[in-house]
Write a structure and sequence with these properties.
The chain is mostly beta strands and 153 residues long. The chain has one domain: Sandwich (Jelly Rolls). Helices cover 9% and strands 41% of the residues. A 6-stranded antiparallel beta sheet has the order 3-4-5-11-6-9, with no helix packed on it. Strands 8-7-10 form a 3-stranded antiparallel beta sheet. The structure holds manganese (II) ion. The site of manganese (II) ion has 5 residues, from loops.
Length: 153
């Protein structure tokens, strides 16, 4: 059977054989998020210091509002959602491409009635995310579109 180190089978949509569902974030209690799961599709055993994860956000859920030095390459592969990158709120559909540069504030949200899933490429060796201070939040919220979009605390 073709299940080996070169090939992982997708048993049902967005569910891959022997790839477990993980909690989205377990390292610190400060980060706020809602209804997000994580799967590492390609991890440390693979090449060139890159990791490919699959995140799934339940309808109405969101990832943490954060920034960091490392970058993200994001490809939605299920449902519909939206994201904040820097000061832009972007509607997202399947197979769009999103680049999150160093130190850009970012957050991903599922639409109210849609599970939203996306691939996210990162470096294995990466810095820890930073959460906004109250001053930074206030500054972000001076942009009405951003204020309306972000979910924090
Ligand atoms: Mn991030």
């Amino acid at each position: 059977m073709s299940h080996n180190k070169y090939h992982v089978i997708q048993d049902e949509p967005h569910r891959w054989r022997n790839i477990e569902e993980l909690v989205y974030k377990d390292e610190d209690g400060a980060a706020t998020f809602k209804d997000v799961t994580r799967r590492v599709l390609f991890g440390e055993d693979h090449v060139d210091g890159m990791e490919v994860r699959y995140f799934e956000v339940d309808a109405g859920g969101h990832t943490t509002l954060e920034k960091h030095e490392h970058t993200h390459l994001v490809i939605p592969i299920k449902g519909k959602g939206a994201c904040l990158v820097g000061d832009e709120v972007l509607p997202l559909a399947m197979h769009d491409l999103v680049y999150v540069p160093s130190w850009a504030w970012h957050q991903f949200r599922a639409d109210e009635n849609e599970v939203f899933g996306f691939l996210c490429l990162v470096k294995v060796e990466r810095d820890r995310p930073t959460l906004p201070t109250q001053d930074e939040l206030n500054e972000m919220k001076s942009n009405p579109a951003v204020a309306n979009f972000i979910r924090h605390q």
